Amino acid sequence: MENQIILDGNLVSKNVKDSLIPRVEKLKEQGVTPCLATILVGDDPSSETYVRMKGNACARLGIDSRRIHLSEETTTEELLKTIHDLNEDTAVHGILLQHPVPSQIDERAAFEAIHIDKDVDGVTSLGFGQTTFGFGRYPSCTPAAILEIIDAYDLEVEGKHAVVIGRSPILGKPVSMMLLNRNATVTTCHSKTQNLPEIVRQADIIVAAVGKPNFIQGDWLKEGAVVLDAGYNKGNIGDVDYESCLPKSSAITPVPGGVGPVTISMLLKHTVDSAEETVKK
Amino acid sequence: MENQIILDGNLVSKNVKDSLIPRVEKLKEQGVTPCLATILVGDDPSSETYVRMKGNACARLGIDSRRIHLSEETTTEELLKTIHDLNEDTAVHGILLQHPVPSQIDERAAFEAIHIDKDVDGVTSLGFGQTTFGFGRYPSCTPAAILEIIDAYDLEVEGKHAVVIGRSPILGKPVSMMLLNRNATVTTCHSKTQNLPEIVRQADIIVAAVGKPNFIQGDWLKEGAVVLDAGYNKGNIGDVDYESCLPKSSAITPVPGGVGPVTISMLLKHTVDSAEETVKK
Questions:
Q1: Which domain holds residue A206?
Q2: Angstrom distance (rounded) from CA B1 to CA B11
Q3: Residue A166 labeled ligand binder
Q4: Contact (Cβ atoms closer than 8 angstroms) between residue B55 and residue B38
């Protein structure tokens, strides 16, 4: 396609972060340093990497991060106690529980225990409901990143047909509801969907959030579709077969350098938003 | 169509109510009478009728109803106080705030004030989020009624393409998420949707929740579609043009006598569920 746009997540991310710098400075003048608490349970190496990346991203903006590392044997009760303590701690503005947790833990109960005011990662059912009903403060970060990219490039959503592939609580479901709130007609697909290529072929906007490497094929696309790849698979490979989809799309996110970096920026933004809320009070 | 099913909401409703009779009896033996508190604000005659109908439906099953009627001039604060008192009242198992409330009231704030344990009408963002994430106890009553009808007639949902027309917090959004959880591929449409007839034509299951009398036309339907009319318009007219849709559908709800009566039964069921929860505690 002519005039094709490669949606540059690194650039969008940089702009979001730049906008946070004066806000963090102002907070510090008021005696408040935004602080994100990250909880890692167990020894999964990728999870350790993600948590470290998030902590480093905080540090570069002058945001404190408090890294809590619990053992592989942690019980649900112990994790809940940790979360409750962080809920009470007025120095902490955001709480991130790194997914996944070891199998003996009730992960949903742990997510739900995060106080709505500190749910900067957008994982609680309450936060999801508020976002869907149009008054949520901290939507799930990957959906928020997708909307941020859409807005940064001034892509039209209203009246468009968006097809979301995936229905997870932190990605497929919230991004479906957020696009619906922006007046898209939204189709949510998943592993039980029949004739997926036929449905994708109708999409003006495609959000891939299925967790299958290079799954979405170019011949599934309508000419000129906008392709947003939120997939993350081993080896830093997206859900979209970039080579075949690139020629058909009017705008597309690469992997890496697409949705991923913006997701972390949204987490930082929400943490700063939350810190500002405490100053207002 | 041959073997066409007229989905009889009165029959489904009766079966739900019959199943509640022994449960109410058992609760009474345990010293607990299920109790639904209904709050009506102002003097809208249709709202008065709805609240009276709900109260009467309770009475016929031996469920207490406590009817609270506040004046047209009620403030948000006064309404919130009423709701908080009902939240605290252990004799009350469910709270229903009749929509709409007078314009000076923040209706959303009032809905959100209902404790999740008593949100038997399924109006809170928390209840919606929990339902969407698969562990809600009291989904919004009209979506619950639609699923009840689907189950009563053993209609297949998995892998089907469901098109929901409407995106309200108590109907379009929750029924979309509930059908998604049943493994339907779900498209949610609304006033900004382009080519609505073309999208409806793909549907195996259509949920009409748009609030426009006789809006959905027979020539929009795929042969053999299942049509669920959750519309309620003045004069007891549905959103579906029944005359033209009847010949095309494999199963269809009439109005009246379709989704409406089951909705009230779901409210009663949720109230009994809630009363049973208090006995368990």
A1: 140-259
A2: 22
A3: yes
A4: yes
Phi then psi for residue B35, to 5 deg, are: -140, 125
Main-chain phi, psi angles of A147, to 5 degrees = -65, -35
Comparing CA positions, the residue from B190, B63, B207, B192 lying closest to residue B149 is: B207
B149 and B241 in a common domain: yes
Q: d(Cα B128, Cα B134) in Å, to the nearest integer?
A: 10
Task: Select the residue of B126, B177, B183 nearest A192 (Cβ to Cβ).
Answer: B183
CA distances from A229 to A5, A150, A206 (A): 14, 12, 8
Strand partners, B95: B37
Catalytic-residue membership of A160:
no
A118, two tokens: 């500190």
Dihedral sign (CA B161, B167, B171, B176): positive
Query: What's A184's domain CATH number?
Result: 3.40.50.720
Tell me the ipTM for this assembly.
0.97
Q: Which residues contact A85 (CB under 8 A, 6 or more apart)?
A: none
Tell me the nearest-neighbour CA distance from B94 into chain A, angstroms. Answer: 20
A188 shares its domain with A111: no
What's the token pair of residue A233?
A: 């698979």
> pLDDT tens-digit profile of B124-145?
999 999 999 999 999 999 999 9
CATH of residue A100 = 3.40.50.10860
Closest by Cβ to B187, choosing from A127, A183, A186 = A186
Token digits of residue B107: 């209706």
SS3 sequence of B213-258: CCCECHHHCCCCEEEEECCCECCCECCECHHHHCCCEEEECCCCCC
Distance CA A178, CA A151 (A): 13
Q: A180 and A240: one domain?
A: yes
- Summarize pLDDT for A56-114 with one digit per residue, the tens: 999 999 999 999 999 999 999 999 999 999 999 999 999 999 999 999 999 999 999 99
